[in-house]
Structures are given as C-alpha cells and as structure tokens.
Amino acid sequence: MLFIPPGFFLPCVRRAASFRLIDSHNRPSTNGNKADGMTNTGMRRLLGAVLVSVGMAAGGWALAQQNPAPAPAQPSAQAQPQTPPSPPQAAAPAPAPAEAPPPPLSADTKAARAKLDGYKADLDQKERALEGRVLPDADLQNLRQQIEPIIADIRAVIDEQAPKLEASKARLSQLGPKPKDGQPEESADVARDRAEREAAVAEFDETQRLGRARLVQAEQLIAKISDQRRSGFTRALFARTEGLLSPDLWLDALQAIPRELRAQRTTLSDTLSQLERNTTLGVLLVLGLAIGIGIALYVGRRSLAPRVVRRDPALTDPARRSRLLAALGVLLLGAVPAIAGSWIVWIAFDSSNIFPSRLELVVGALLRGIAFIAFVRALIDAILAPDHASWRLISVSNASADRIMNFSVTLATIMVAGKVLESFNQAIAAALPITVITRAVFALVSALLFAELLRRFAARATQEEACLGPYVAPEVDIGGPIRTVGWLAVAIVVGSVLGGYVALASFMVDQAVWISIIIALLILTIALADEFIGGSLRGPSRLATTLQANTGLRRRSLEQIGVLASGVARLCLIIMAILLVLAPWGIESTDLMGSLRAIFFGFTVGDVTISLSSILIAALLFTAGFTLTRVIQRWLDNTFLPATELDAGLRNSIRTAAGYVGIISAAVIAFTYLGLSLERVTIVAGALSVGIGFGLQSIVNNFISGLILLWERPIRVGDLVVVGDGEGYVRRINVRSTEIQTGDRSTLIVPNSNLISGIVRNRVRNDRVGRVLVSIPVPRATDPDQVAEIMRKAALAHREVMSEPTPRVFFKKATENTIDFDLVCFVDDIDAAGRVSSDLYFEIFRKLRKIGAPPPEPASSAREPEEAAEKPAPAEQGEDEALTLLKDKSPA
Where would I find the Mechanosensitive ion channel MscS domain in this sequence (predicted)? Predict the structure, then answer.
C-alpha cells in the first residue's frame, strides 16, 4: 500500500495552477471562437490533471523504494498457506465540523467595549496607585474626583445596552423554544434567524456584564479610598501627645523658644525685603482703597441694617411673615458686607504679592475670622433679636438673648484668635510643643466658656423654678437634654486636653460651634419654608387665590398641597443640615448620594431587586389608571348612560363593572412594570389565601357577593327593599357592602353577603306598581253602601290611581261603635303611593263630614300582616309615615 504525504504533490498542484493562471492571463478578451477557447481550456485542464496524477504516482513509488516492507519474523511463515485478507475495517467517523466563527460585533458594541477597556486601564492604574503607598488625604480626594465621572460613564454605557438587550430578547422570544430531540427540525431560515438573534442577545449581554464588572471595580476603589480617608482621619484625630499638664511638654516648649524667635525674625526680615521689592505707589493705592472699602463695609453695616430693616418696638405682636423677613434682612445686611469687605481686601493682598506665601495663610485666616465674627453676630441678632423682644423667632427672655449674644461673639473671637495663631505657627514652622500648647490652650478656654454659659443657664432655670413655687415636672423640657449634651462635650474637651488628645479636643470645639451654626440656620430656613411655601397656599393669599381661579382647585386642596410642599422642603433642609454636620467627619454628600441613588434606581437583596424609582413609576401608572377609570365612570354617569333607556340599577352595574375593570387593569399594568411574573404573583396569592382562610374570609365573601349582585341584579340601585327590620331605597352597591337609605334619611349599611344569603323583600323587583290601602272607621249607624260609594268614587276620581285593577272597597269588620272599611287601589309608581294615600284620606274625610258621618277617632292606617314594615316616605313629599304601602298587584 502506497502512502503519499499531502505535501508531496503540492509543487505539482502549484505548477498546474500556474498553467491555469497563465492560460487565464493569455485568454483573448474577445468572444470570437468560443468552441476553440473551450477546447483549449479543456486540454489545459486535462494536461494539469495528468501532471498531478503522474506526480502522485511518482511520489508514491519513491516513498515505497525508501521504505521497503519489513522481512517476516519467522521463516516458517512462508510455508504456511496465505490467510485470507481480513475484512475492511469500518471507516473512522468524520471529525465534527468546526464551529462557525462568531459574527462580527456591531460598530456601537465595538465603541462601547472600547470605552470599557479604556475605563478598565484607567481604573487599574488608580488601583495600583492605591496599593503602592499610603496617599495623603488631598491625593485620595483627587483620585475619588477622577473615579466618579468614570462611574457615571460606565452607568451610561450599561443603561445604553439595556434597551438593546431587551429588544433582542423580545425578538428572540418570538421564534419560540428550540425543537427538542425527536421533534421536527426547524427550517433553515428560522435557524439562521435564531442564530443571528442569539448572537445579538449574547453581544449586548456580554457588553452589559463587562460594564457591570467595571462598575464594581470602580465602586470598590471608591470604597477603598473612603476607608483610607477615614483611617487617616481617625489616626490624626486620636493622635496622642503630651498632656497640657505634662512637665515634659512645657520643658520642650521652653527649649524651643529661642528657635521660634529666630524663625520669627527670619520671617519678619523676609517680609520687609519683599515689601521693599514689590511696594509701589500703585500697590499702596490699591491696598489702601481695598482696606478702606473693607472697613467701610464692616463698620457701615451696623448703621445700614437698622435703616433698611425696621423692627418697630411699638408692635407687640408683629405678623410672622414680617418677623421672618426682618430676620432674613438682618442676617444678610449684617453678614454679606463684612464677607464682601474681607474678600476685597484678600484679593488686593493676593494680587499685590507684598507678603511671602507663608504669611498669606495668616492674612487669610485673619480676614476669614473677621467675616466669621460678623456672620455669627448677624445670625444671633436675626433669630433672637436681643433689642427687640417682640421680633424674636424663638421665645427666650431678654437676659437669655443678651447672654447668648455675648457668649457667641466672645467664643467666635477666641476661635478666630486661635486659628490665626495656628496659621502663624504653621507659617514659621513652629515646633510641635508650641503648636500643641497653642491648640490645647484655646480648646480649654473655649470649653471653660461653654461651661460658664451652661452654669448661668442652669442657675437661671433654678431661680425661675424657685419663683414659681413647688417644683412641678414639665411635660417637655428641651433645655435639660441640651445642657446635658453640653456638659458632656465640655467634659470630653477638658479630658482630651489633659490626656494629650489635643487634636480631638480642638476638633470637638470646632464641631460644637459648627453644629450650633447649622441648627440656627436650620431654624431660620425651616421657618421661611413654612411661611413662604406652605403659607402662600394657605388662607386668602394672593397666590392661593390666583391658583384657585386658574386651576379650579379647591382651597382645601391648595392647603393640602402647601402642607406637602412645606414638608418636602423641611425634609430637604434637614438632609442638607445632616450632610453639613457630617462633612467634617469624612462623610461626604457623594457617599450619601450614592446610597440614595442605589435605593432609588435599585438594589439587590438575594435574587430580588428593589427599585424605588420603579415603585414610584408603578404607583404613578396605577394612579393614572385609577384617575382615568374615575373619569370614564363620571362620563358614563353624567353623559352616556342618561342618554340610554337603561334603568338606574343597570346603569349602576355598568358603572361599577367599568370601575372594577379599570382598577384591575391599572393594577396589572403597575405589577407588570415592576416585573412581577406569574410565578411571583402566584406565591403572593398563596400567601393571601392563608390570610383569607384566617381573617379575610368575610371580606372576600362580601366582595364576591357584591359581584353576584351586580351580575344577577336581584337588587338594583333605586329599589325599595326590606331587610330585617329596615326598609328603604338602595343607593349604592359597594365592594363590601350596600347602602340603603331609610325613610328618616339615615343610611343602613348591609354587608353584601347578607343580601345574597339572607331573606330580602324587593318591592319593585318586577315593576314599580304599588298598592295603596286606606282604612276608614265610621260610626256603626252609618250606611255602609254610602260609605263604600264615597270611597270608590274618591279613588276613581284621582288621576294617579290605576283603572286596572279596579279600586275596590272591603268591609273589614264591625265593632260595638264603628264599622271599618278598606279601600285598595293601585298606582303606577310606588313612590307616588304616599301622596295618593294622603289625597284619598283628605277627600274621603271631606265627603263623610258632608253626610254627617265623621270618623269617631283620628284616621289610622294598618298594614296587612305580611306588610307590617313601614314604608319610608320620600323626603321631598313629607307624607305621613303612618300610611301603609303594599306591593301586590292582585286585589285583597
């Protein structure tokens, strides 16, 4: 058997192919002699095939010569007869065809993945920077600011892929599931379409998964940066040094004094040298003008504010809006000019460059401190108004207002002095003991000032209680908890200073002042929001009147909108205040906003994704569907159904059925938007079935009974029914119960299940014909025939009494003194029975008096035994409730 390697005859094939190429190159462009061309082409192809065959045979012969057959192992084998050849073995199975290469990605997907690759490279670089060394807080914050836009871009890529993925899945679902083993194969067109759609789904899904992976990496980096910042903040805050009472600290400070003096002289020399180099007449003019403007703004604000904002002391009870506007004006006019003056002076010093850069910190701290003192004074004056008791926003005594004002200004001055001195120590690179002593002394002085204020307030409260007599515990005393927290803060600051945690003590003082300012601003802004947001829509205000006239909303609705808007404004202000309070602790708004974003756009708990935005949108969809249902019901009630010939009961059934369909449809749409599948709804229904079995059985029973009432309509709206001891007209058939209005205008609430399973008498089930019974007693000596004729003629003469059945008079009974007659007649509408009965009584009594046979006693009405219940008289008629109405078309 010859074995020819595949590459052996490759040169021959190439040679044949070259002949073919030469032939195609030399082929004439004209189509003149097609037969000759075809013959020549066929000959060339035949020649190429012969050469290939000869090459293969020669290659096989040469290989056979090089590899002769091996000699037999046993010589005796030649003597043995030749065994028949073994049957040919089964051919080896053909190798599985190679999988088709994946279809190329679309241009949009390539661009999206290129973006994700770039984000990954950037995130990897930042991750390596975090792992290499501990970065300072400024660098960490810079890294975070660089990562946050990347997170937003990655989310945009993910959101961009989501609708494409959903659309591809929807298209793929239209093809149905793949045929299983044993089922008929799908056509080639369907298989090709399925492959394309599956590839599209995989393409968008993989892109989305890549985006989520990058998003997780970025969020992990943000979390790592936050952890490092918090760790650094904690280390710096709880760094321990020598306590303020430690002798070593003071000895080190004394030893560092000569060095500090030399540093101060050097700084002064550098400052004078720079002044000589950079001071010109123009610079001096600019500085002088800026300082003059700053002083004018700072001093002039004290006289400007009372002229612009007048707090009339003669007004003992000014309006709340006037007080709030005055407080806002005092705050702005007291703080803004001082801040503007400090800013102008700072711009002038910074542009003139007359001080070394290290002293610019001191100048900046001093200017900021001056503006801070003015702001604190203006804030306290705006809220407490020490000189105008009737204009205060918080009810405190005059002494307390003055005390808080003096304390606040003094504390602000001490803090500014401490910050300026710390900046100077930083400028001259003061030794650590000097810096520690400076911060510790100012923190301790601030704590002692806090303690003195708390002591005075406690003494004031004790004096007031002694003046009021025996102690009575107040219901709410907010001053007690505030004083407790204040004393606790003072104890922490003093203990930290003495224990060597100077950074913690200084931080606590700063936080106490910062939180106090935030609380004061929160009080003012909440009051402004309540007055100008909620108050503008409350009462006969101009805005409320305009909205009421243009939108048609009721005043009560506007007040509710104002309350809701004011509540939302309060919530936003409180959240902002909390963020400002937590900001110095390393908790930034971006952290909270990330959590709020996760809550709003969805977070995963197990296999369930909870999204507040989806819940809100689903609620809006349900509200829109519910509102549309009510609009349709109102249109049916007021426009469409009155134009038909349907009775009131059928109209109510149609209206109620439309309401059920609309509400159920709105609920289905809302649940569908939430992504609740049939399986999850089944689980919820199973849980509800357990509740139905225990506590909701009666509610469901009444609901089903209401549906039966609407469908079978044994009782309709407007029917006169008798249920137990109650009788009245059906006004509404609700989900759980039915409203029946009785004759005394009260409403009888009957569960729907009672109307289905109980005994109910419907007086107008088939028609509205009603029977009228008039009972007349006359003296025994009266002629019965004459009385009967009078009663019959009175009935026949009334225009609302039906001629068929004919009115009939019955001799009911005879007593010792009287004989009793009953007149039975019928009317078309049972609602007119009371009026007809009254007319008949008047007419019969008038005729009886004319014949000299007046009734011996006041007329009374009696029902037949089966009609013992009293018919309620309609409110608009005002009939006597003693008359009897019977629903019976046959004569008695």
Answer: 699-762
